[in-house]
Amino acid sequence: MLPFASRVSVVGTDIDRACALLKEDQVVAIPTETVYGLAGNALRTEAVARIFEVKNRPTFDPLIVHTDCLEKVLRFVREMPERAQRLAERFWPGPLTLLLPRQDLIPDLVTAGLDTVAVRIPNHPLTRSLLARLDFPLAAPSANPFGYISPTTAQHVQNQLGTQVPYILDGGPCQIGIESTIVGFELGRALVYRLGGISVEDVEKAIGPVEVMTHSTSNPRAPGSLQSHYAPRKPVFIREWESLSNEYPPEAIGLLRFTELLSAVPTRNQVVLSAKGDLSEAAQHLFAGLRSLDTAPVKVIFAELLPEKGLGRAINDRLRRAAAK
Ligand code: TXA
Ligand code: MG
Q1: 260 and 136 belong to one structural domain
Q2: Which of 54, 64, 150, 230 to mutate to test the pocket of ligand 1 (most atoms within 8 A of CB)?
Q3: Given 177, 209, 228, which residue is the final one in a domain?
Q4: Which atom in ligand 1 lies closest to the alpha carbon of residue 225?
Q5: What CATH number has the domain bearing residue 292?
Q6: pLDDT in tens, 162-198
Q7: pLDDT tens per residue across span 54-113
Q8: Contact 260/289 with Cβ under 8 angstroms?
Q9: In the structure, which protein residues have their CB atom closer than 6 angstroms to any atom of ligand 1?
Q10: For ligand 1, what atom is nearest to the CA of residue 226?
Q11: How many CB atoms lie within 10 A of CB 174?
C-alpha cells in the first residue's frame, strides 16, 4: 500500500502534466469560470466510467462535453438549430451549455443513452489552452461528490476528492461561481433545463421567449435535475430564521445573507454574499459561503432568498435544492 501522502492529488498549473494524464484515460480536475470540473476523455468509455466512479454519481445522470471551438463542437453533434447557433455566437466561450443531437462517436455513458449531448465551450484561460491541445473533448461534471456543493476553488476539490484525483489544475477561484445555464430545443420550443450563469433575461434577449423547466426528482427529461442537490451536510432552511430561533440558540445558527449581517447571531457564523447587493458577486460567493457555514460550529443553516431576477433566480434555485430533503 502506498503511503498516504503519495495518494493525495498534486495541485498546480502544469498543462503538460494534465494533458499527459488525460491521454492515459485518467481524470484531472480543471478550472472553469463556473465551477471546477472533473474531466476525462469524452470519447473513451474507460475515462468516463472513472469520472462516475470518483464522484459516486449514478450513471443515469449524463455529463457535459467541453471543447474550445465551434469547429470541434460540430464533430460530435448532428445539427445546430438556428437559435442554438445564435446562443453559441453570443455566449461562447461562457457559462452556457447547449443540448444538441449527438453523433455516434459520443459514448452512451456520457449521455446516459439520450439522443442529445450537452456541450459547452468554457471561458477559462488555463482550460482553454488545455482543450486546444487535445484532439478529444473532455466530459466533465462538477468536481464534487454527487449531491454535494460544487467546488469553486482547487482547495475545495482537494478537500473532497484529493485522494482520488491525480492532478488538480489550479486556475484560482471561479469568476461566475454557479454552474452553466443549460438550454435545449424540443418541438420548436427553447427550454431552459437548468438556471445558471447566464440569466433567462439574457437568453431571451438573444433568441426570444424560452420556457424554464420545473424540476422534479422524477423528470426523465432532465435526469440530473434532482431536487435534493447542491446540499451541505447540515440542514438548510430558507424560512426567516426568526421562525426557528426559539428552537436553536443563536450560536447554533449559521446565516447566509444577501447584503447585511444580523445582530442576533454571532458574526463569525454569518456569510454576506454581496454587501453592495450585486447578484453576480453573490453568485461568485455562494458555494464557498455554503461550504464555510457547513464547516462552522453551527447546527443549522438559514438562507435568505435573493431577488427573483437575473442571476438571483439561479441562486435561489440552488438554495431551494440545498434546502430540499
Ligand atoms: O458549469 C457547468 O456546467 C459545470 C462545469 C464543470 O462545466 N458542469 C456541471 O456539470 O455542472 P454537472 O454534471 O454537475 O451538471 C450537468 C447537468 C446535469 O444535471 C445533467 O443531468 C445535465 O447537465 N445534462 C447533461 N446532459 C444532458 C442531456 N443530454 N439532457 C438533459 N440534461 C443533461
Ligand atoms: Mg454538478
Answers
A1: no
A2: 64
A3: 177
A4: 19
A5: 3.40.50.11030
A6: 999 999 999 999 999 999 999 999 988 999 999 999 9
A7: 999 999 999 999 999 999 999 999 999 999 999 999 999 999 999 999 999 999 999 999
A8: no
A9: 32, 34-35, 37, 61-64, 95, 97, 99, 111, 114, 116-118, 120, 122, 140-142, 179-180, 182, 193-194, 222-225
A10: 19
A11: 26
